[in-house]
Known about the structure:
The chain is mainly α. It is built from twelve helices and no strands. The longest helix has 24 residues.
Amino acid sequence: MAEASVLNRQTERTDPSADQDNAKRRQIVEGARQIFMAQGFDAASMNEIARAAGVSKGTLYVYFQNKEQLFEAIVGHECREQGERIFALDPEEHDIEGVLMRLGLAFVEFLCRPARAPKLRTVIAIAERMPDLGRRFYETGPAFGLGQLTTYLNAQVAAGILAIDDCEIAAAQFLDSCVATLFKPILFNCGEVPTPERMAHVVNIAVRTFLAAYRVR
């Protein structure tokens, strides 16, 4: 039985039809991304998404039942990217200033990408009538990142490096201060993407303020 299980897994990994399915799915998601960016969620139709993706409508429905699933696939990918890349924090790394600077810069750069704000506006716009989508976006994105940073800060408190009464609040304060003056103008479509120098300036202030408040003297 064990050998059969191993063979099955090997077949799954090398099955060309599985690779083709993944490629087709990515093709559809990219077509949907283009339509959502150009027209917004409400105006987008499955017909237009199929045309942009270069697939038939029948093929589109094999992979996604509706545009809600498509939109969730797009934002879900970005949430996972954020969690895996930006908030991969090692509790054993005690260079807190270095960790927070790297985290803050990566977080700001991610949020301030030109394509990021339109997706976030769409999530906010549809969250009231599709609360499950809004909840999943929050749990896999903002809440996950906050939890990762909270866990890291708790480890630094346990190591005697930081003195924090509520690490979740401190984590939220730090992340919010990193995007101060940077992200909201973009979100409301009244500002340009900040320069790397401006991002570094704001994050540096956020790190220094955090350490001044919480580092053990």
